[in-house]
Amino acid sequence: MSARFINFVARSLFLVAALVFAAGTGLGQSLDYAITHVTVVNPGSERPQLDRTIVVSGRTITAVVPSKDFKPTTSLRLIDAQGKFVIPGLWDMHMHFRDAGRDLKMDVAYGVLGLRDMGDVAKEVFPLRDAIAQGKQTGPKIVACGPIVDGPDSWSNPKFTVSVKSADEARAVVQSLKEQRADCVKVYDGLSRDSYFAIIDEAKKLGVPVVGHLPSAIGVREASQAGQRSLEHGAALAGGSTAEAAYIQRRLDPSAFQEALRTKNFTLIPAKIASDETMMLDHFSQKVADETYSLLARNGTFITPTLVTQRALTFPDDLIKEDDSRMRYVSSEELNWWKPENGMLTRYRTPEYITMRKREYDLLLTEVHRAQTMGVHLLAGTDITIPFTYPGFSLHDELALFVKAGLSPSQALETATTNPALLLGLSKEWGHIALGFGANFVLLNADPLMDIANTKNIYAVVLSGEFLDRTHLDTMLREAEVSRDSSKAWSASGQGYFIGKLWGEDLATFPRSPIQHDLTEMAKIFSSGEHSQVRSGVSSITSLRDGPFEGCTSWESGPL
What we know:
Strand content: 15-25%
Number of helices: 22
Helix content: 40-55%
Shape: globular
Radius of gyration: 23 Å
């Protein structure tokens, strides 16, 4: 089967699934209406507004008034919300599509009404974004970067990755993304210093924000000073280590990787990672970290820690044993990929690596709260496509982890409402329930300020002015369930099989050069058969049948 045909099928499935969602959900009544006797929770405000009436006309909130002052007209449909609470629509600020049709339903049903897509195929995600914005399709508002921009021989999925080898190429990519109306430029681990700073410079000229990973060759403070608007995952931790410079140099040492390739002793890879990360952790200084957080706050650099992803990569053995009802939204093939014994890094973990990951996760929880107290704006993101993450659902898990880290429920809600609006320049449309704001909000059966878990207790959702009741939302969720025989369709679509990287975030501790050739050769050794693809020095592996990793079905997919 030709690669061209497979790509055609993938694009077709992506768009068809999304269009089916648009046609099949059936929106609620579009008449103007008033939601009466509701408690309004605007994150960041001093106190909730009790017994309010919200009037919605078209896609806009046209009044928020005390219910005692509300004078209904015959043209308004009245919805009694006595005992209910309302919060602004939630944003997932770091996600990718597994399957557009399914994902959009799950997001809307769980009140996630805004998405920042951090890497997908431009010809798929930009038309989807535009169709929703133009009212031609139902779904959350999408802000999309399009393809990831990385250095040569990237291990990100080649379907949505552009590799650049020079500053000139980097500038040309930014110009192209601007022409395609990309909302942001996402940078990745393997960019050289010259390419990275060229992207930053060109993006500033063209008015496009730069977001994404912290490239291996760049320090945390350098990225903030350069103007990168958001740092994803746990990248900021290195900025608190007195050994950051040495840490960067160690990450550029390919000797352990090369020895693992030569001897086929692949435990050397997690052992090397554990050694490097432990060195960084051993030299962690709260004083240095606080100085870094103060700088990030002054520069307006946001952090998206994706705590649910860090938890999934730290505790896969525990999560796979849980009887999680949400697994009915995951195909059998994908569930098999999630098993620790089927992931490259999880299979070859060392005790030191396991200890390091738990130690790093604990520190991340502590430092997320510390950064917030120092004025850093945090963003809620899930990195959907990572094992044990679920569209819509996992955003609520992220909020709960923020509270576990020490944020108040109101502060946690800010990470998914007011902070995204601030970063995206949407503070006059999103993030509050007030006159003139867009009618995108979530009605809850219980107070989220008393218990953040109440954000999951959803009574109804208002999306672009359309009132979707509980029955409607339940129908959407039933339609999103995956039958156990649907794994082939999921695999063919390619949505979410983001395993083109070798060991994901952890192998990102190694440089692209001088081990680029070794990466490609390693992929050739580890993969075979019709499900492997090696092209232009980039590996995209979906099945590993032979060689030293016989029996494994996937690379462990780290944060994208």
